[in-house]
């Protein structure tokens, strides 16, 4: 099969077909998404034949041998830590969701890592109805889902973006306030869904209410975070930072997100779409912050 591999220019190469385990289905990939983390932190020393990629949608061509999961011919969206950037993908039946016929596979391919991360991080914050919640990096893939999901949960969402241009559309997604960087935020917040790290994470922490929580989801800034816990007048008495990571199985959360998308209650926020031989163009756009939301590639 053909696959997009981690050569310096993300070229399409021929690699061995995946061999599914008894609890995995084999899907014919129709479209996959690129994520900032996959590009920014990709390895320069990947083993030959290694296929990266987290998010892919397509059609089951071989059902799981153990009888779990959907039948051949079923449209699905999948989440895993490798194997998405290829014509064929083997994926655990616990980490996929069925996609209704009326829903675009391209849109659902944008959901897995970004949508599930936003959903699970919001869940970790606990009840947010009526509470003020800050989303940093709100113009990115995870951020745009976090704004929508937090608003749906009843939070007063403050969306932080890097520039006025990047902030466009965030109010329409449910943000009650839009700021350019958390340092410009007035007042305190109960919770933070932080996708940036570095200086912005520190600035967000300083604006926590007592007992507030920062979910450290991403590190788009690619810089260390330095916090002065004794900074007078701006620190929470009992605030905390939690290192957030998504947890398996992913299937239930994926099905929930697909349901919201199918009902018109969630926008996939696809900011770039093109053929997979344009992968470097998409990657460059992601790294340069020229994509509002998600980048997806059609096979």
Automatic annotation (TrEMBL):
Span of domain Enoyl reductase (ER): 5-297
A Pfam cross-reference name: ADH_zinc_N
SUPFAM superfamilies: GroES-like, NAD(P)-binding Rossmann-fold domains
GO MF: NADPH binding; oxidoreductase activity, acting on NAD(P)H
Alphabetized InterPro entries for the sequence: ADH-like_C, ADH-like_N, ER, GroES-like_sf, NAD(P)-bd_dom_sf
Stored SMART domains: PKS_ER (SM00829)
Keywords in alphabetical order: NADP, Oxidoreductase
Protein name: Oxidoreductase
């Amino acid at each position: 099969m053909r696959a997009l591999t981690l050569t310096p220019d993300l070229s399409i190469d021929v690699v061995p077909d995946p061999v599914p385990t008894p609890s995995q289905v084999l899907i014919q990939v129709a479209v996959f998404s690129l994520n900032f983390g996959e590009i920014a932190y990709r390895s320069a020393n990947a083993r030959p034949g290694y296929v990266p990629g987290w998010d892919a949608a397509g059609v089951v061509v071989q059902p799981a041998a153990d009888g779990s999961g959907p039948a051949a011919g079923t449209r699905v969206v999948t989440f895993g830590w490798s194997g998405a950037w290829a014509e064929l993908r083997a994926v655990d039946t616990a980490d996929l969701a069925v996609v209704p016929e009326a829903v675009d596979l391209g849109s659902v391919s944008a959901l897995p890592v970004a949508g599930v991360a936003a959903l699970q991080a919001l869940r970790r914050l606990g009840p947010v109805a009526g509470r003020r919640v800050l989303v940093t990096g709100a113009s990115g893939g995870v951020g745009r889902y976090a704004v929508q999901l937090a608003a749906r949960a009843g939070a007063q969402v403050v969306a932080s973006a890097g520039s006025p241009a990047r902030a466009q559309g965030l109010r329409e997604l449910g943000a009650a306030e839009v700021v350019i960087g958390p340092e410009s935020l007035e007042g305190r917040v109960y919770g933070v869904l932080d996708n940036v790290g570095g200086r912005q994470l520190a600035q967000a922490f300083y604006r926590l209410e007592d007992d507030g929580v920062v979910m450290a989801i991403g590190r788009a800034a690619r810089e260390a975070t330095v916090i002065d816990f004794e900074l007078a007048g701006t620190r929470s008495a009992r605030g905390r930072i939690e290192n957030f990571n998504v947890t398996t199985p992913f299937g239930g959360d994926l099905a929930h997100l697909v349901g919201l998308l199918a009902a018109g209650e969630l926008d996939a926020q696809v900011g770039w779409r093109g053929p997979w031989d344009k992968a470097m163009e998409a990657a460059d756009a992601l790294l340069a912050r020229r994509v509002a939301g998600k980048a997806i590639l059609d096979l």
